[in-house]
Every structure is written in C-alpha cells, then in structure tokens.
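Quinolinate synthase, pasting as requested.
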Amino acid sequence: MTIAEIQQEIMRMKKEQDVCILAHAYQSQDILEVADYMGDSYGLSVQASKSRCKNVIMCGVRFMAETCKVLSPQKRVWLANPIAGCPMAEQLDLEFLRALKQKYPDHAVVAYINTTSELKTECDVCVTSSSAVEICKKLDADKILFVPDPNLGHYVAEQIPEKEFAFYTGGCPRHMIVTPEHVRKAKELHPNALLLVHPECRQEVVAQADYVGSTTGIMNYAKNSECKEFIIGTENSIVEHLQFDCPDKQFYPLTVQLTCMNMKITTLMDIYNCLKGCGGEEIALPADIMEGAGRCIHRMVELGG
Ligand code: 13P
Ligand code: SF4
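Structure tokens follow.
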C-alpha cells in the first residue's frame, strides 16, 4: 500500500470505530495528516477530555497517553507504539521524590507533566511548558519544589522572582545536548534569523533566545512573526512542520542532534495496526493511581485554564 492508501484506510477505520487520533507536534507529517488534533502537551491534555469519541489513539509518548486516560477515564485510550517513552519522565521515582519532600517540607511540589502517573500521585500539581509560569504564579505557595526538569524550573523561577524555588537534577537528554556553541554557529550561519527555543534547553541557551515557549508556542510565534528566518531550538520535526506551513519563510535546526528517538518511533503503520486490533497498547492504570494522578492533573487544568 502507498502512504496515501494507508492514510485513507486509517481515516475510514477511525470514523467507523469512533476513534479520535491525537498527535504531539513532534510526530511526523504523515501522522499529523490523519490526526484530529495536533498540539503541545497542554493542548493534548485538554483536547483529550473535550473529544466526544469513545476511543483515543495517542501518537506521542507514554506519559501523554496516561494523562489522557486519567482525564478521560470513561474512554479507551491506546498508545500507538508501546515503546515510546520519555526518558525524563522515568528520571525520578517515588522513593527519591519522598526524600526530596523531606528535604523541602514547606515547599509545594510542582511536577512537569513529563513524569509518570505514579509520581504525580504525590505532587500538588503538574504543569506543561506552556502553562508552568501561569500555574506557579497562581499556586497558593511561596516555596516551590520543581521536578524533574531544572531547566524549565529555572526559566519559570526567573519569571516569578517573588517565589522561592528548589530543583531536582533531571532534564531532557535531547534538549540538554544543545550548547552555547551550537547557538554561536547557527547565528553565524543565519545572522538574520530569530532564535526560538524550548525551555527544556539549558539556561545558557535559553538566555540567548528571541522567544522561549512550548512546541505550539514556537510554531505560533514563527507563523505570526514578520521575520522570514528562524533557528529552531526544539525537536527537529518542528522545523519540518513549519516549513510545510510557511513555504515563504526559512527554518533552520539549531543542531541536527535535536531528534527525539522516542517521539520518532511511532509510525503511520502503528496507527493502522492499532485500528486493525493488532498493535498499540491500551492504557490501564490502577484505581489509586487514577485517583491520585487525577487530583494533580485536574488541578493543572483548573489553574491553567
Ligand atoms: P510541549 O509541551 O512543549 O509539547 O513539550 C513536550 C516535550 O516533551 C518537549 O520535549
Ligand atoms: Fe522527553 Fe525530551 Fe523526547 Fe520531549 S524531547 S519526549 S522531554 S526525551
């Protein structure tokens, strides 16, 4: 079958089976073309609960499918490719979190959404890159323990100087690859381009950016900007999508190394197989995790809306 034929078959099966396909912005173009919604982690979370479909296929990484299940317990939710995980989400386990909470007993615990559902059961609220500043500002706490990404944490802390922050030493292994040297070289090659970066990048990189935001934030900024050239400091699929959407503008990757293999593992055929009933993994979480993570995720939606 050709790609177009597989896409047609997916469109037919998803309608027949009442399936909504959600795709993170890091997914490939052929997947975005069959998706009902494409967005950043926050957009996906909200969209999951708004959708009227009985079934959801998540094209992204495991924590995104788990968030979707927690927000829509009555829906059947599949992760299109079961081995798609986020390494950052696995960095901090409950035991270590409990030790951190003992060290910072008077801090509210804010978890990046890139964490397991189990970890969320012992956090006060979770945040995404697009909602973190707003939620930490609104949170009724002067002291915040931000886990696991210290890069996003420091970016948030800078916007809210009136609050005190403590951090963990995790982070996204992909975005942390970017160095100021990559920035120097990219700016030298493209002196007229604006630098747009994700807050998971190191502080030294974020400090040089013209715009800092989530994947959707970066895409919207580039589309609405008068500028014609951009260096993109997040996963390289965003370069590809922007080039499709804005053929009259130029987009350059900050480094070729900014490729998330976990996000890239999902293919069009995974969706096809999932719909055929011979692929994907249906997300099932124990009742206590649904309840505990639900409290943390619902609070994010309440404060972030
Ligand atoms: P966004 O919320 O910006 O989509 O980020 C998710 C992510 O995993 C970035 O690496
Ligand atoms: Fe996780 Fe980083 Fe990949 Fe995002 S880019 S899914 S944070 S490993």
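Note for the archive: Residues 182 and 255 are 7 Å apart (CA to CA).
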